[in-house]
Amino acid sequence: MTVLTLRRTRTVRLALSDGVERDYLLDTPTSTASALGCPVYDRLVHAAYVLARQGYDAHWLTRFAQLPPTAAHRITEAAAHASH
After folding, report:
1. Fewest 10 Å CB contacts: which of 17, 29, 42, 58?
2. Where exactly are the structural domains of the chain?
């Protein structure tokens, strides 16, 4: 009998430069399959999340990753919750 184990993926809803809100993966994707309605993987969002987990603040992430301030704040909030 095959047992399927689902891994909970961390996502955050962001509007980046195109202004469209969508769910972004915070961790590296586990497969290359993509489907409509699935979270988007963006290397810059992932890098910003890793840096936020290391203590970088939203203001720094806004400059480094050229993220909108709201997106940078949401990423740092997600990183703070992941640390608990």
Report:
1. 17
2. 11-82
**Mean pLDDT score of the chain, rounded to an integer?**
83
Spatial CB neighbours of 44, under 8 Å, sequence gap ≥ 6: 65, 66, 67
Residue 69, pLDDT above cutoff 70: yes
Cα separation of 11 and 2, whole Å? 27
Burial 59-77, CB ≥16 within 10 A → b, else e:
eebbeebebeeebbbbbbe
Q: Give the integer Cα–Cα distance in Å for 41 and 26.
A: 8
How is residue 17 written in tokens?
């430069």
Strand partners, 23: 13
CA dist 80 and 48 (Å) reads 13
pTM value?
Answer: 0.76
